[in-house]
Amino acid sequence: DAILFYRMGDFYEMFFDDAVTAARVLGITLTSRSSKDDEHKVPMCGVPFHAVSGYLARMVKAGFRVAICEQTEDPSQAKGIVKREVIRVVTPGVTTEEQLLDARSNRYVCALAVQAGPKNQLLAGLSFLDVSTGDFLVSEVLLPEKNFNPLIEETTRIQPAEILVSEKDRERLAPALDILRTLLPGLCVTTRQDGMFAPDTARLSLTDHFRTASLAGFGCEAMSAGICAAGGLLAYIQETQKTDLSFIQRLRPLDHGGFLIIDESSRRNLELTETIIGGKREGSLLSVLDLTCTPMGARLLRSRLLFPLQDRQAIRQRLDSVEALVLDPDRRRQLRQVLAGIADLERLCSRLVLGHGNARDMSGLKVSLGRLPELQALLADISPGLLRETAGELDPLADLHELIDRAIRDDAPITLREGNLIREGFHPELDELIVLLRDGKQMILGLEQKERERTGLAKLKVGYNRVFGYYFELSRAQAAEIPADFIRKQTLVNAERFITPELKELENRIASAQERRLELEYTLFSEIRNRIAGESERILGTAARVAAIDFLACLAEAAAGYQYSKPEMTDGDEISIRAGRHPVIERAMDPGRFVPNDIVLDQRQHELLIITGPNMAGKSTVLRQTALIVLMAHLGSFVPAERAGLCL
Predict the structure, then answer these.
(1) Residue 580, exposed/middle/buried by CB under 10 A (0-12, 13-18, 19+)?
(2) Arithmetic mean of pLDDT, 201-217
(3) Which tens digit of pLDDT belongs to each residue from 46-90?
(4) CB burial string 477-492: b at 16+ within 10 A, e below
(5) Which helix (H) or strand (E) holds 7?
(6) 576 three-state secondary structure
(7) Sign of the dihedral defined by the CA atoms of residues 102, 105, 109, 112, in that order
(8) Cβ-contact 539, 397 below 8 angstroms
(9) Helix (H) / strand (E) containing 630
(10) Residue 215 and residue 100 in contact, taking contact as beta carbons nearer than 8 Å
């Protein structure tokens, strides 16, 4: 069920029907390994291995799964055909390829599992996983007879790129899948055997991965259908990635109890994350608010916008932290400068754990970790609250920064088999090989001088040819004076050529130094990568705290830049907005052109407002801006109004 990219030398080759399909999708030449007159000729095409990411992206965007088959043994050591294996499978929902990922959005694969529920209802389990960050979610919804709306609502809120179902459930969920394909253009549906989703198998898959006796610690022990979906999804990721998944640290229930639930219709009409027309990010509330400096912060903002808070105390904590930065512009500016220098720690971590990370990823991680002490220092004396608490919990990962700084060259190439990855001074054997490669000729000349002094043969000179390699040369007259350890190699008309054990050993060391260096550097790099991957829990914890700080700094920057005010979250039953503005429309207009509106709603005298006026008078604008102001307050954001008193 996948296009096979089969590694042969410097190319990934495709054959038979795969080649016909790939040539069409990628716009490359379709050729054949057989002669043009062979009626059984095999269609084939290929792409260079060093540029495979771009071709992978195009195949996956076209809706195909791609299996990557690599050599898994050294060709020089192989007997017969070099052993190859499928090392990973790239799918629309399971990828770490940068060209397929939006840095500011998660890319989830979703698994669905259905069981019989109470009173002739179905119980649907849903699980979502972003393999590029390790975010792993689980949920359950009840489906009244022939009503898939709760399932569709839950799925469209997360917007997965791929849906995974069992063979049995694909038929039962066919109507829902048809609707989801309409609502989520480009959605890929993948079918797997029923056994992957079996309750016992799924539960065992999860407990084995998390090394726990039960799932009670994750708060989902009772989610029977959810566990089936999550276990099947984890097995699918293990099947496609074929490597350690230690960066998937926990399974998080999608608990809606503490959040303001926004249905799919409201999300679409309020244009929270994309516009109704064209589905574009630009023109949405998210595009206005997203002033984040890091990809982690951008993804957290999007997630929190879709799941606004309901807890008054939690909202006030966010608002107070935003206010602290609004009132301290110098600190806010310095904080954002530091944050801008921090790369995507979540996705760097996942690439390193999955074995896809290269030296550039390591360098990016080092630079990012180098900014963390400064980030902590900036928030050490801020007023007590979320920001100080989060900064205090931040692990600066100084040991990992020191390791990378000591080991990895700043100018290391992207590919891992070309050398120049490891710094001199990190490993004694590697240092010796580097010296051999850099100073080999000088060492040969040094040996020439040493032998002149030892033998007293002042005219002894070293030479080289492709047949014999390095040799010592003497005239025929001096040849009678050679020491006993000189071995005659060639006789010429006027000269004799000799080798010595020391010269031959040095030549062999120089000749094999490059190959040995490349192999040793790759081994050392892999060891370092594994050591860093072993600290994935710490890296992801730090990434989460950096994202939380960036989220609050972003809201503060928006509040200061757009002249938003701090809303008052009250215990009453009134919404009172003075001089409110639509946050998106006012940004699309010249400053001062938007006419503010006052709104008062309560459950006594103003429970309903009837707004009249001609077409294009702004009736729906007032309606939507009121909803957006309330939603922004639940997010913990300042709001576009002179004053806003809002009840929960």
Answers:
(1) buried
(2) 91
(3) 999 888 888 988 888 888 899 999 888 877 777 888 888 998 899
(4) ebbeebeeebeebeee
(5) strand 3-8
(6) strand
(7) negative
(8) yes
(9) helix 619-635
(10) no
Q: Tens digits of per-residue pLDDT, 590-614?
A: 888 898 999 999 888 888 888 888 9
H or E, element range at 151: helix 149-158
Q: Which long-range contacts (CB under 8 A, 24 or more apart) does 401-410 make?
A: 401/366, 401/369, 401/370, 403/528, 403/531, 403/532, 404/362, 404/363, 404/365, 404/366, 404/369, 404/528, 404/532, 405/366, 407/524, 407/528, 408/359, 408/362, 408/363, 408/366, 408/525, 408/528, 409/359, 410/363
Q: Which token pair is 232?
A: 């099947």
User: Phi then psi for 465, rounded to 5 degrees?
Assistant: -145, 165
Work out the burial of residue 501: count CB atoms within 10 Å of its CB; fewer than 13 is exposed, 13-18 middle, 19 or more buried: exposed
Q: What ranges in 534-584 are assigned the alpha helix state H?
A: 536-562
Mean pLDDT of the region 524-532: 92
Closest CA to 627 of 604, 613, 609: 609
Phi, psi of 253 (to 5 degrees): -65, 140
Task: Let me know if 397 is exposed, middle or buried by CB neighbors in 10 A (0-12, 13-18, 19+).
Answer: buried
Cross-strand pairs, 141 = 124
Query: Which residues have C-beta within 8 Å of that of residue 540, sequence separation ≥ 6?
Result: 134, 247, 249, 345, 346, 349
Q: Is the pLDDT of residue 476 over 90?
A: no
Tokens 């076209």 sit on residue: 62
Predicted local confidence at residue 36, as pLDDT: 61
Token pair listed for 458: 């002042």
Distance CA 139, CA 225 (A): 9
Cβ atoms of 546 and 394 closer than 8 Å: yes
Q: What is the mean pLDDT of residues 357-371?
A: 92
The whole-number pLDDT of residue 37 equals: 61
In eight-state DSSP terms, residue 483 is -
Q: Parallel, antiparallel, or unpaired: how do β-strands 568-570 and 495-499 relate?
A: unpaired
- d(Cα 164, Cα 228) in Å, to the nearest integer? 12
Q: Distance from CA of residue 566 to its chain's centroid?
A: 35
**Nearest-5° angle of CA 560, CA 561, CA 567?**
45
Q: How far apart are CA 105 and CA 161, in angstroms?
A: 12
Q: How far is CA 18 from the centre of its chain?
A: 28
**Residue 646 DSSP SS3:** strand
Amino acid occupying residue 5? F
What is the C-alpha to C-alpha distance for residues 76 and 74, in angstroms, rounded to an integer? 5
